[in-house]
Here is the input.
Amino acid sequence: MTLKFARLGTAGNEQPAVIAQDADGTEKYFSLTALTNDIDGGFLASDGIERTREALNKGELPEISPEGLRIGAPVARPGAVVAIGLNYTAHAAESGATPPEVPVVFLKPTNTISGPFDAAPIPPSSTKYDWEVELAIVIGQEASYLSTVTEAAACIAGYAVANDLSEREYQIPGAAGQWTKGKSLPGSTPLGPWLVPANDIDAGNLRLQTLVNGEPRQDSNTSDMIFEPATIVHHLSQYMVLEPGDVIITGTPEGVALSGRFPFIQPGDVVELEIEGLGRQRQEYFQTNAAQAGAAQAVSLAGTHA
Here is the structure.
C-alpha cells in the first residue's frame, strides 16, 4: 500500500494526515492525531510510517474530509534544509558550469519553507526570480559519518516535491553574488503536497516537470542525476549531522529561466511543478514590498515552527 503523508490546515495549525487507497482503489484521508501531534522528526524517528501502516490495517484511524483545507508542507520543523547544486549535467551546462565531481552543497534557512499551493511573493527588488523543480529527501534516522551508501539509504524516510526558488541577480553576478543571498528569500522553498515513504517509490526513475502559465519549461527524470539520493546522504553525513525531519533538496534539471531561453517569473504568473508519484505544486506569484515580504516570512515561520 502506497501512503502519502500530508499536513492540512491553516499555516501554524496544520494537522497530520495520511492518504491511502481502499480496496476499490479510492483514495481516502485519515487523521493521524491518534499517533502524533505532527509529521516531524520525532514521528519519523519513532517508526511513525510503519506504525501508520499497522493502524490503517487495523482500522484504527478515523477518516476525515480534506474539503476546504489548506495543504501545508508535509514535514514540520526541519532542523535543516540542505541543498545540492548543479546535480543534472544538462542544467550545469545551461548554467555555464562544469558538472561537479563531488556534490555542491549549500544551506537554506528553514523559514523559507511554505505550502505547495501558497501564494508566492516575488522579492521587492527582484528582476530575475527563477523556478527549480527538485526531488526532496526527508531524513528519518540520524546520519553521521556513515560508512556505506546502503546505510545512507536506510536513513531516508521518504520523498517530496520541492521548488528551490532562486533570485539570480542576488545569487550570481559580481563580487556580492552569493548562493545564500539568492536562495534564502521568504517563501522560496515550497514543499509538498505529500511525503511518500522511500519504500513506496523508485526515487531513481521519476519524471520531473515544470509548467509556467501552462507552457512547458522543465521535463527530465531523476535517473539523470549526477549524484543519487543515497550517495548525497552518505556524502553529507561526512560533514554534518543529519537529523530526522531534515530536508535535502537534490538539484534541478535543465529548463530554468537562467538558461536565457525563458523569461523570469513575473507578477501574476502561475508555476506548476510535478514529480511522478509525488504530486503537483501550484504557485501564483505576486510582487511584494518590504512590509508584505515580512508578513510572508511570518506566515512561513508559523507554518514551519508551529
Notes: Helices lie at 41-45, 48-57, 89-94, 149-154, 168-171, 179-182, 229-237, 290-305. The longest strand covers residues 279-287. The chain has eight helices and 19 strands.
